[in-house]
Amino acid sequence: MKMFLISDNIDTYTGMRLAGVEGVVVHERQELKDALDKVLADKEIGIVLLTEKFGRDFPDLVNDLKLSYKTPLFVEIPDRHGTGRKPNFITDYVNEAIGLKL
């Protein structure tokens, strides 16, 4: 099973290539769709890493993928600029999910 990166910047792509993860750099919605079609056609790919920017810019596309496919697993990762989430994102998520204040 392989991992594959779809990134919006060359720095994240370069870092992941140094770690042995193949990938592509895309910027436009159609480029992202084309890259995803290519990934979905390759049955050896088990995990697809997407930079968080795609989740912010194209939430309908990314959320649909996460809900529609069991494999590959789609994971959003922060890029070199850090995460776009609030510092207490996980605590807020848990509070909302179970209804308890931590």
From TrEMBL:
Belongs to the V-ATPase F subunit family. Transmembrane segments: none annotated. Keywords: Ion transport, Transport. InterPro entries: ATPase_V1-cplx_f_g_su (IPR008218), ATPase_V1_fsu_sf (IPR036906). It comes from the Bacteria. This is V-type ATP synthase subunit F. One of its GO terms (molecular function) is proton-transporting ATPase activity, rotational mechanism.
